[in-house]
Design a protein that fits this description.
This protein is α/β, with parallel strands linked by helices. It folds into 3 domains: about 40-150 and about 190-350, 3-Layer(aba) Sandwich (Rossmann fold); about 155-185, no CATH class; about 380-530, Glucose Oxidase, domain 1. Helix content is about 35%, strand content about 15%. The chain has helices at about 5-15, 15-25, 35, 55-70, 95-110, 125-135, 160-170, 175-185, 200-210, 225-245, 250, 255-265, 275-285, 290-300, 315-320, 320-330, 345-350, 410-415, 455, 515-525, 535-545; strands spanning about 40-45, 75-80, 115-120, 140-145, 150, 155, 375-380, 380-390, 400-405, 430, 465, 480, 500-505, 510-515. Helix 4 crosses helix 10 (about 225-245). It is globular and about 75 Å long. The structure holds FE2/S2 (inorganic) cluster. FE2/S2 (inorganic) cluster binds near residues 86 and 122.
């Protein structure tokens, strides 16, 4: 900061009654003139008792405050909306943009010089980054960290990959009620976010590749004391970032996002990153076309042996060196010269990281597979693209032609999926309509919808499933997601009928509805959009402005850089 007052300084040094009240009311909290002269560091705390993943955030926040004080700043904690994946209906994705707006506006509106963002559960990390990118005040993200491994009678369990696997066994009648209930008591046994490479682990790991978090942020377990020390270090570092003027706009470049996609591929990370990264990038004026994910995934080897694709979980990843070790191994594929919140480059950050252990983290010379396992599909069924995590799919289904069995929405699915008279064959392709951003509403994580009970009882555990929904990063199967345009927006998915043939060919990146153009045109002419899910309130705002999945489902009016610089914003 050269010659210009910091935002906090300007706020307290104002003349007349404005400055008088700013100082007097702030002093009412016990702060003195010395505190008011220091950089004001906001700590954006998403603690909530309706978010189990964040239940340790009060303690984490205290650690950040200690760091800020040690470095000569004044910490001021403030709350923003907390999105607990388990508690929110109809889906936390509906509220991600609301949380991003809350974060942006609270940073924008208060006299802060820098901010530490506490986030962790699935949508909170992308929301915090979207808001902070738009506000463009020096910012550093501290994640809550993953849970410890779940455990049942000595067997390691993962939330929520095993929630699904074991529920399928319970539905099939191969797991009794008492065992199923006992597992429930041991699968989620600590604070922190889900501990497989699901969406939360993915997004919090990617913060290291993006350069918006300190090295180690991705994998230190929530309850490990090193997580608190990292939070304290972040508190110290944000004060220095304020004096260096190190803002997100200097860090979140196109190259940083490419680094994030390389890491996503090497981790076998969540398909949800294909929605969240374009949304964050869109706030920075960076375009991330879907084909970039396909291209980077195709050339990036899978190094992390992590569930749901591999064998281990976040706790083992941490013991093996964590994300810095993965990034060190990936350096030949990364833009190592990218600036990060440490004030150093990405390559410098990971120079002393542990080498790959060969088990949890494979070396570049001996990967688990030679590609990252995400593919983008196109065809007359998905003109604007669809996503498949083929690393977590059944290899024999990656090229498949079958009869469509269509569920028109989630209600229809729930009504019929357990019907033992359902006309369904093992080689059918299951289609779910109206589960996208508009239709869901909010693009819920239902793309990995259940196998019909009739087939489940015959031992079938995977089928091709196609929808405009998302799926949890902890899920697996031959599942085509994010079909765009979605059916509720009049995309071709809306015109599929039971009995149509569909062809999936992942190697050729094709998703084709085998119905001739004239018939499709007739169906299109007869199609009527479903009634909107909301007539008022935030839901109405969402339906009026949400964009399709390839643009990250952000609101149209939130994309792009703000022409008004934060420092120029007037106060009345
Ligand atoms: Fe929070 Fe899974 S419930 S990350």
């Amino acid at each position: 900061m050269t010659g210009q007052l910091r935002r906090g300084e300007g706020f307290f040094r104002e003349s007349g009654v404005a400055g008088f009240t700013h100082r007097a009311f702030t002093k009412s909290m016990g702060l003195d003139d010395d505190d008011l002269r220091r950089p004001l560091i906001g700590i954006c705390n998403t603690f909530s008792e309706l978010n189990n993943c964040h239940r340790h955030f009060r303690e984490l926040c205290e650690a950040v405050k200690r760091g800020v004080l040690q470095a000569g700043g004044t910490p001021l904690e403030f709350p923003t909306i907390s999105l607990g994946e388990i508690f929110l209906s109809p889906t936390s994705m509906l509220h991600r943009n609301l949380a991003a707006m809350d974060t942006e506006e609270m940073i924008r509106s208060q006299p802060l010089d820098g901010v530490v963002l506490l986030a962790s559960c699935d949508k909170t990390t992308p929301a915090a980054l979207m808001g902070a990118a738009s506000a463009d005040l020096p910012a550093i993200l501290v994640s809550g960290g993953p849970m410890l491994n779940g455990n049942f009678r000595g067997e390691t369990l993962g939330a929520c990959t095993d929630c699904r696997r074991l529920t399928a066994e319970h539905r099939a009648g191969t797991l009794d009620d008492a065992t199923y209930q006992a597992i429930e008591d041991g699968i989620v046994r600590s604070a922190g976010h889900c501990m497989v490479m699901g969406t939360a682990s993915t997004m919090n790991s990617l913060t290291e590749a993006l350069g918006v978090a300190l090295p180690g942020n991705g994998a230190i377990p929530a309850v490990d004391s090193r997580r608190m020390r990292l939070a304290q270090a972040a508190g110290r570092r944000i004060v220095a970032m304020v004096s260096e003027g190190l803002r997100p706009s200097r860090i979140l470049t196109r190259a940083a996002f490419e680094n994030a996609i390389v890491l996503l591929s090497a981790l076998g990370g969540s398909t949800n990153a294909v929605v969240h990264l374009p949304a964050i990038a869109g706030r920075c004026g960076v375009e991330l076309p879907l084909e970039l994910f396909d291209e980077i995934s195709a050339r990036t080897p899978l190094l992390a042996n992590l569930r749901p694709v591999g064998a281990y979980q976040m706790e083992e990843l941490f013991y093996a060196g964590g994300i810095p070790s993965v990034l060190r191994e990936l350096l030949p594929l990364l833009h190592g010269d990218q600036l990060t919140v440490t004030g150093r480059t990405l390559a410098e950050n990971v120079a002393t990281a542990e080498p790959a252990d060969g088990q949890v983290i494979r070396p570049l010379s001996d990967p688990l597979q030679d590609h990252g396992g995400l593919a983008i599909l196109r065809g007359n069924l998905a003109p604007d693209g669809a996503v498949i995590k083929h690393a977590a799919a059944s290899p024999e289904l990656l090229r498949h032609r079958g009869r469509a069995l269509v569920f028109t929405d989630l209600h229809d699915l729930r009504r019929r999926i357990d019907d033992l008279e359902l006309d369904v064959r093992v080689d059918d392709i299951l289609v779910l309509q109206n589960a996208g951003p508009l239709g869901g509403p909010g693009m819920p994580e239902v793309g990995n919808f259940p196998i019909p009970r009739r087939l489940l009882q015959q031992g079938v555990r995977d089928m091709v499933r196609i929808s405009d929904a998302r799926m949890s990063g902890t899920a697996y199967g031959t599942i085509v997601l994010h079909v765009a345009p979605e059916s509720a927006a009049g995309g071709p998915l809306a015109f599929v009928r039971t009995g149509d043939e569909i062809e999936l060919d992942v190697e050729r990146r094709r998703l084709q509805l085998c119905v001739d153009d004239a018939e499709l045109a007739r169906r299109r002419a007869a199609w009527r959009p479903p009634a909107p899910a909301y007539a008022r309130g935030y839901g109405r705002l969402f339906l009026d402005h949400v964009q399709q999945a390839p643009l990250g489902c952000d609101f149209d009016f939130l994309r792009g850089r703000d022409p008004v610089r934060l420092d120029d914003q007037a106060k009345f």
